[in-house]
Amino acid sequence: MAKVTVDGIEVEVPNGASVLQACEAAGKEIPRFCYHERLSVAGNCRMCLVEVEKAPKPVASCAFPVADGMKVFTDTPVVRNARRGVMEFLLINHPLDCPICDQGGECDLQDQAYAYGHDSSRYGEAKRAVKDKDIGPLVKTVMTRCIQCTRCVRFAAEVAGTPELGGTNRGENMEIGTYVEKALSSELSGNLIDICPVGALTSRPYAFVSRPWELKKTDSIDVLDAVGANIRVDSRGPEVLRIIPRVNEAVNEEWMADRGRFSFDGLKRRRLDRPWVHKDGKMVAATWPEAFAAIAHRLAGLPGERIGAVAGALADAESVVALKDLMAAYGSANLDCRDDGAAIDASRPDYWRFNTTIEGIEEADALLIIGSDIRREAPVLNARIRKRWAAGRFPVAYVGPRGLDLTYPATHLGDGPGAMGAFAETLKAAQKPMVIVGRGALQRPDGAAVLAAAWKLAAEVGALTPDWHGFNLLHLFGGQVGALELGFVPGQGGKDLAAMLAGGVDALWLLNADGFDPARIPASTFVVYQGHHGDAMAGRADVILPGAAYTEKDATWVNTEGRAQRGRLAIHPPGEAKEDWRIVRAFSEGVGKTLPYDDAGAIRARLAEASPVFARIGEVARGGCADLAGPAATAAPTDAAFVLPIPVYHQADVISRASDTMAKCAEVYGPQTALAAE
């Protein structure tokens, strides 16, 4: 550790730290544009100039390492004049369009010009103009505002792993762009908006919609993939206008995937806003009592074994436990939350969790990916893997379709389960090897065998030890793990999804279950669909109960690593739609099977009773593997090639399928976004 004195305050910082980091440790604010703590140091804006004792001139604090005994001065006449000069140069060609700039109110340049700049300009010549670049349907460019800080260039190359941005020309003629005009191919491109310190890169869907001070800001969780990124939902009145990430070092750092960020316009399209009942060959609008009466009438004469329920990928934990309790009241054990047919063994939590944890990826030293395109299934988690790869000595291999571009070098071992053992020696040589099994690898007839084989491989190569748990199952959406934690799977003598769809039930309650083809449901089966979008499954329903989307309720979600997190109500559901657990609770009361909770506190107590995961919100229990017994399987996996579960990244769920923005992205990018050119 080095002792550094900053404006008379002595602090200790690690050897190799920068002067800027030492100043921050001393509580001093240092202005900056090019510096970002998660990117490499560029040192090209010079806004962070400070004085160092015995240095001949002010130094760029972001790129200057500390030394023991160093004395730093952050607010001297020399520093103030240097910063004013830097700001004057930055504003020479910057347009004076703050009143109409999308970044107004959130602009670092605006704030720092006010705090550190001159009160007037001496520049009287004509300003240069730069042609705007078309880099896709998500990010809007006004490149005349660009100050060449190169944050976007470094983010694209270092974090996203798609080095498509760079500088052309030199000096005053320098421009940032994509060299050949094209749409950015990264699933993390929206983060460029957050890191741009000026208005050069802004959100195209949000352009000219509102100012930040007009918005109501609500903390929530992104459920459109299973990472559980912490987000902030910005709304005005009854409408969500923007979604941006919040910092959570253990989960998403400060990044967010594009589908979760930009698909919010799907929240107001194709919505189910009133109950519907099938009468005389067509669906007609109904009241809540009429819808409940229609369901009660059909369920009244059925034994429990002829009633089933399926929870889908976007179902919150409160609604899942309420539906499970309702089915128990009817005497039914026919439950399943694996609406995509994935053969997940639900007998032990570490068979379905990402046991290494997202933060633990940075400790691993070898990785095998089985049947997953992590780049599209969990872009933020993939960025964490890339971060570990960039740190060095991290061999990666994958089994799946040839030609996947994961944004880091990965050896293709083969297309099917038979190739999993080809990487065994490398994993054995590692101290902390990881195995990641994609949910798509389990959506096949031999899925149980694939899961068992992957666990066995992890045990054989030393990935399962008392101090390290290297077996990981990567889920696709935010509601999948919570239902598993709550045991929403067939009970004693109960039927799974396949058995229910084969005629095993006469009535089927679907809770946000959109993961299978509705044509598989027998024509004679009575179907209740409870959800928030009029997608394909709603067209098969006999009764439709309109629920609330994830931005419209206080709800609990569990991410792929088993971390329970709370989302907050940002806007109210449209029309007569209601929170899902309240719908189930109201129905139970109407049929004389009243569930024993009627407020949020009571149902959350029920969640904590059902699983300890819900008693530690925001935390995850991380440890090794003490029991090497593997998932059950009756046969070996076949050699059939793995098929990836998300053919079109931008339209993977009911919300994004209703989004015009995501439809434009699907049109621009097509189904091969993450495949490398052969």
Automatic annotation (TrEMBL):
It comes from the Bacteria. Its EC number is 7.1.1.-. It catalyses: a quinone + NADH + 5 H(+)(in) = a quinol + NAD(+) + 4 H(+)(out). Keywords: 2Fe-2S, 4Fe-4S, Iron, Iron-sulfur, Metal-binding, NAD, Oxidoreductase, Quinone, Translocase. Residues 215-271 form the 4Fe-4S Mo/W bis-MGD-type domain. Its cofactor is [2Fe-2S] cluster; [4Fe-4S] cluster. Residues 2-78 form the 2Fe-2S ferredoxin-type domain. Binds 1 [2Fe-2S] cluster per subunit. Residues 78-117 form the 4Fe-4S His(Cys)3-ligated-type domain. SUPFAM superfamilies: 2Fe-2S ferredoxin-like, 4Fe-4S ferredoxins, Formate dehydrogenase/DMSO reductase, domains 1-3. GO terms for molecular function: oxidoreductase activity. Belongs to the complex I 75 kDa subunit family. NCBIfam families: NuoG. NDH-1 shuttles electrons from NADH, via FMN and iron-sulfur (Fe-S) centers, to quinones in the respiratory chain. Couples the redox reaction to proton translocation (for every two electrons transferred, four hydrogen ions are translocated across the cytoplasmic membrane), and thus conserves the redox energy in a proton gradient. This is NADH-quinone oxidoreductase. It comes from Roseomonas nitratireducens. The lineage of its organism: Bacteria, Pseudomonadati, Pseudomonadota, Alphaproteobacteria, Acetobacterales.
